[in-house]
User: Fold these one by one.
Assistant:
Number 1:
Amino acid sequence: MKLPSAAPDLVNRASDRPASLRAWAQKLIQPDYRHHEGVRPIQVYVLRLFFALIFTLIGFGAWQRILTHEGPWDPIQAVSWCTWAAYATFCGFGVYNTLRMLPILLFIVLYKAIWLLVVAYPLWQAGTLRGPAEELAYAFSWILVPALFIPWKYVFSRYILTKK
């Protein structure tokens, strides 16, 4: 039985798919010097996702709280809400300028890591990690995920080991 003339074309396209998928996957994990200063595109895309999540989940709540607050502020709470609104706003910029806004993500990772080491770990060791501290420790422990996608080689070469 002879196949119609279109059938060989379908077979060829089907056999090209794995190669095409493989090429696409390789583009995601190979450093991109043209668009992302040598950072892997997968890292940039995941960081954009984190920036977008922070912008929406933290930003909208913080700005809503600031804009709808009535009466005098408790100074400590006001600093907290303003800090959250500011870093969430910078994360909005990070969706489009991902590598330029890396310092804000580094700030978030660093302050949460410090809090986990200085506050949560001693409470956990003593068996007294309960209530709000336990909730914060659980929420802050997720910071390990974006920390895995931070392009650390880029961070060190760009921000720490800079040559004058």
Note: The first helix runs from residue 6 to 29.
Number 2:
Amino acid sequence: MIGTSFIGLSHITGRQCRSITLYGRQTMGARAAEARSRSSRRDRPWIPVTTAHFTLLGSSSAATLIVALSCSACYDRAMPSEKQSILEQLVSESEPSDAVAAYYALWHAGTVIHTERRGGEAGLALEAISPFGPLAILRSTHPALVPALLRTLPEDRLYLMAPRSLSKPIQRAATIEEAAYNAVFHRNTQPSPVPTVKDAEILDRIDDVAALVDEAVVARCWTLWSSPRFAEVAVETQLDFRGRGLGRAVVWAMVSRLLAGGITPLYIVAIDNPPSLRLAESLGMTRSREDEFAGYVDLRRKNH
């Protein structure tokens, strides 16, 4: 397990840059937490962990808080050196195609990390709860480690994510439902001003960017998760308002907001979704070298 629970103490004034002291205490994965009483968890002290600097972006009525933390704030300081070595070998914090894995490994409290080592080969399985349910992420230097990595995961129905290069060994080792390949796009530079759209208002709100027609939200873009380096954006447009550039406008505005705060936006879409692919390309986003393999694996009926 790695992760820390945080509370922040600070004074915020207007939109000026300020600093915040974060007080943390070790959080526990579900398995370890079951072995501890509620009182013992309460008794773990809050201690100063790190000082982060932040800037409020946007208008006074709709500001976004961007916080930059050092990695040590969320690392489990008791993580075995071998496990940490494998994590650093297989997951790059700066690589967009590894951004989801890095977020769940380093910044998502409660993630359980499983590792395998055979000779010079290494494997990693992350077990976490995402906004959509149980999640597993695999990384491995050799396909032979995939069955062992799957055996470390709970016997449940999980959404599984891995590099495309591991898709065949995963499908040989387990039954995958709704298998798909996703393209991972990112952008490092600010786009030009947000495009105007006819008969719609683009509103920059605290939690999202929305397109309004007759004061009703017909399209919106928001972040699924964010780390100090990356944030994944998602977009939805009501069926009757598609094809009018509203989705592109709200994504464009969110991309601009994130980049202004020093965060690289990610846009992950299925490769068989031409409209979403065109949207990413129209925003000048760069596609990562390797696509992502994803699907549901039901480990309650293992065949590996």
Note: The helical segments are 30-34, 38-43, 81-90, 99-106, 146-151, 167-173, 246-260, 274-282.
